[in-house]
């Protein structure tokens, strides 16, 4: 499965969502100027990254689902 390029792209998109989420949570927990400047931007970026990740996951399942 790890030799499938589409699977690797899906995996990278999920990791990207996790990274953006963790940066947002760290900024929220720390508060301060970083959180005031970037909270909404990070939330929008996370939602966009999640949307792309879900589309890629659905595409992977659709394309590779019947390949038994």
UniProtKB/TrEMBL annotation:
Residue intervals of the HIG1 domain: 1-68
Entry keywords, A to Z: Membrane, Transmembrane, Transmembrane helix
Listed InterPro entries: Hypoxia_induced_domain
Transmembrane intervals: 6-31, 43-63
Superkingdom: Bacteria
The protein's name: Twin transmembrane helix small protein
């Amino acid at each position: 499965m790890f030799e499938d390029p589409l699977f690797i792209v899906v995996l990278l998109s999920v990791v990207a969502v996790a990274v953006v989420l963790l940066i947002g949570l760290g900024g929220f927990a720390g508060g301060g100027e970083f959180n005031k400047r970037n909270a909404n931007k990070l939330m929008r970026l996370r939602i966009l990254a999640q949307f792309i990740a879900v589309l890629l996951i659905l595409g992977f399942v659709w394309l590779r689902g019947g390949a038994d």
